[in-house]
Amino acid sequence: MTSANDGEIVQFDNVGLRYGTDREVLSDVSFTLYPGSFYFLTGASGAGKTSLLKLLYLAQRPSRGAIRMFGSDVITMPRARLPLLRRRLGVVFQDFRLVPHLSAFDNVALPLRVAGAAERDLAKPVADMLEWVGLTERMHAQPAQLSGGEQQRVAIARAVIARPEMLVADEPTGNVDPDMAIKLLRLFEALNRLGTTVVVATHDVHLLKKVPDSLIMRLDKGRLSDPTGALRYPPRRPFMRGG
Amino acid sequence: MAFGTRPTLAERWRKLTTRGDAELVPQARLSGPMPWVIAIMVALTVIAAAAGLSLANTASAASDELAGGVTVQVIEANPAERDRQAAAAAETLRRTPGVIEAHVVSQDEVERLVEPWLGAGAGSGDDGIPIPALVDARMRDRVDGEALGGLRRILRQVAPAARIDAQSSWLEPVFSAIESLQWLAAALVALLALAMTSAVLLAVRNALGANRDTIEIVHLLGGTDTQIARIFQRSIGYDAAGGGAVGLALGLVVVLFLGRRFTGLGAGLVDAGALGWIDWLLLAMIPLAGVALAMLTARLTVIRTLGRML
Predict the structure, then answer these.
(1) How far apart are alpha carbons B294 and B69 in whole angstroms?
(2) What pLDDT, on a 0 to 100 scale, did the predictor assign at position B48?
(3) A185 Cβ contact list (under 8 Å, min separation 6)
(4) Among residues A177, A184, A240, which one has the least CA distance to residue A212?
(5) How many CB atoms lie under 10 A from the CB of residue A59?
(6) Cα–Cα distance measured from residue B104 to residue B92, given in angstroms and rounded to the nearest whole number
């Protein structure tokens, strides 16, 4: 069992996940994420990236193993405490998961509203964020009126609006043009420089080279490979550099 | 409300009455026919409750009126002897401790009482049917078997042909029937509350199903069960308040209409069932109870459903 450490933001220990009685989609996954690091999670389709992210953003409990996040054991944590933990995370879902009847503005404002922010304090940060992702003109549009790329940018704006301690993004650049993809990565990097731990799942190997100081985790058939020793404790940093 | 646009009147009302989290679930999906279902339930509950309260008032008033009543019949074929014993019985009763008043009911009045069965002037003339003389007496306290036995012993000396009965015993079957009707009204109110709870349960489940994706998103963004439940309970609360107000108005119209019809009958027992101000207050509280019941049902349903998520 890996020892706990105050510097760790996430610690997985021999985690396994299966849906129902099917075979495990994740097996013996152990790794540690550190504050302020930038991670890419790679692997072929079906390798288990999304399942691993679900465990990271607390949408799923593992079938076995131990998970600690922000110093707390999330397996034994009372259910009522999980929402506060989730508010420390920002998530970009692969299918965006925007609220269909809300405008782009209200979708981006959602994490702030959930956290109890006053209505008068919403307008400026949300408008700034929409401006940053280039959607100022589309702030009143509902998701159905937005293109795939625009929806993705709204989803990203929503994920980062509350300045999360850890950002988890599932294929965040999958539906945007290369220029916008670079711009979004720069946003993630800027957040990372401010101290946010970033985990980006992607199967686009070219993307890895765009963030020089990123660390790479590779999933293969539900197992996390560690060819460079990147995931062992204590880490040998940087264990793999993009670019 | 969209940012930067001029809010409509409805949006302004919602903004005044809700917080931002109410925006998460579209109101229309939860509403639908729900306010009308609640309106009907509340109207029926108001009518059933009014009937129950009215019956309770009737029973209470009749019971109070008859509780101390005693009727003495002097069954004697000889008219002179009958009148003498009746007068003696009334006089003796007036002097008896605990008796407030006692008087001989006039022969004309007695004949009027029996007229529907025996015809006019049945007791008059030489060939008339001998009709018992009646003495109507009222005691300070409720007449029970012991009090009745005491009066019998006293009257036996002065009016051997007297037969004495407590007036309340005549109406015992009526009181029993009224009590049954009261239970029926209470059962109806309970059934209607159950039906409304079931209707709210179904509506909330449908709304939960229709908004499952939205709820999951809010849940994953750190929304608490209480926060999400509040959205639904507030929404159903508005439906229940609107429906309850309409239902109360409908129910009161029916109650007032029926009240006027019964008052027109001019029957003493029915008039005694008129609703007092406490009754009207209780009826006015039915929609409030409906709102509370609907909101509690919504809250418990949502929290229970969310409890199945991580």
Answers:
(1) 48
(2) 92
(3) A173, A207, A210, A211
(4) A240
(5) 18
(6) 12
Provide the strand spans (E) within chain A: 10-17, 26-33, 38-42, 64-69, 72-73, 89-92, 166-170, 197-201, 215-220, 223-225
User: Token pair 């280039």 is at which residue?
Assistant: A134
Chain A segment 140-169 residues within 8 A of B by beta carbon are: 140, 158
The answer to whether B24 contacts chain A (CB < 8 Å) is yes
Looking at the partner chain, which of A82, A111, A113 has a beta carbon nearest the beta carbon of B310?
Answer: A82
Quick one: pLDDT at residue B307?
Answer: 87
How far is it, in rounded angstroms, from Cα B37 to Cα B40?
Answer: 5
**CB B149 within 8 Å of CB B156:** no
3-class SS at A232?
coil
Mean pLDDT in runs of 10 for chain A (243 residues)? Answer: 59 92 90 90 88 94 94 92 94 91 93 90 93 92 92 92 93 81 85 91 83 85 71 49 38
Asked whether the bond before A234 is cis by omega within 30 degrees of 0, the reply is yes
pLDDT of residue A238: 44
Predicted ipTM of the assembly: 0.86
pTM: 0.69
Among B5, B218, B310, the residue with its CB nearest the CB of A59 is B310
The answer, yes or no, to whether residue B19 has pLDDT greater than 60, is: no
b/e per residue, B241-252, with b = 16+ CB within 10 A?
bbbbbbbbebbb
Which two structure tokens, joined as six digits, stand for B103? 């008087």
Q: Are B49 and B55 a contacting pair, CB within 8 Å?
A: no
Separation CA A61–CA A54 (nearest Å): 9
CA A51 to each of CA A20, A140, A220, B221, B259: distance values in angstroms, whole numbers, following the listed order: 14, 33, 13, 18, 68
Residues B224, A139: C-beta atoms closer than 8 Å: no
The CATH classification number of B67-169 equals 3.30.70
pLDDT digits (tens, 9 = 90+) for B125-182: 666 777 888 999 888 887 778 888 888 888 888 888 889 888 777 777 877 888 888 8
Place of tokens 């009518």: B47
Q: State both tokens at B134.
A: 């009646």
Domain ranges of chain B: 13-63+173-306, 67-169
B68: closest CA among B134, B141, B127? B141
Determine contact: A113 vs chain B, CB below 8 A.
Answer: yes
Cα–Cα distance measured from residue A202 to residue A49, given in angstroms and rounded to the nearest whole number: 8
8 A C-beta contact, residue B283 and residue B249: no
Nearest by CB to residue A106, choosing from B23, B222, B307, is B23
Q: Is A60 on the interface with B (CB under 8 A)?
A: yes
Dist CA A31 CA A15 (whole Å): 9
